[in-house]
Amino acid sequence: MAAYKDKGFSERLSTGAEAKKAMLERVRAKPGPDDPAIAERRAAREAIIVAREARMAERKAAREAEIAEEAAREAERARQAAEQAELEAAREAERKRQTAAQAVDDVALAAERKAARDARYAARKARR
């Protein structure tokens, strides 16, 4: 079995220098900002952004339209409730008027009955 051989200082230095050189080559190999492929990708990203903003604006408009519709429905419900309350108030006033009229009629009927009864009593006393 062979013994482990430790790398020397100069070998480590050359390995580090080669790594730096490889990284520099990778950076240099990347296309610049005026490359047609980069410009095409940038244009595609901008088109995607514009489309996204348009969809967001459509959704916002739809939400606002829905809110306006709901407000209109709520206003219609409030109007109907007010009409119903007015109708109920009129019915209640009519019931009270009828109750008062009935009370007046009852009092008048009771007075007539009392007068008739008193007349009968007086007639009976007069016959004696």
Account of the protein in words:
With 128 residues, this protein is mainly α. The chain contains two helices and no strands. The protein has one domain (34-127). Helices cover 88% and strands 0% of the residues. The radius of gyration is 51 Å and the shape is rod-shaped. The N and C termini lie far apart (159 Å). The model has no long low-confidence stretch (mean pLDDT 92).
The count of DSSP E runs of length 2 or more, i.e. the number of strands, is 0
Largest sheet: none
Q: In total, how many domains does the architecture comprise?
A: 1
* Strand residues, percent: under 5%
How much helix, percentage-wise, in residues?
A: over 70%
What string, H for helix and E for strand, traces the elements in order?
HH
How many helices? The count is 2
Radius of gyration: 51 Å
> Uncertain runs with pLDDT below 50, 5 residues or more?
none
Give the overall average pLDDT. Answer: 92
End-to-end CA span: 159 Å
Shape designation: rod-shaped
Strand-pairing-aware structural class: mainly alpha
Give a short synopsis of this structure:
The chain is built from two helices and no strands. With 128 residues, the chain is an all-alpha fold.
Structural descriptors:
single chain, 128 residues, mainly alpha, 88% helix
Note the topology.
Blueprint: H1 9-29, H2 36-127
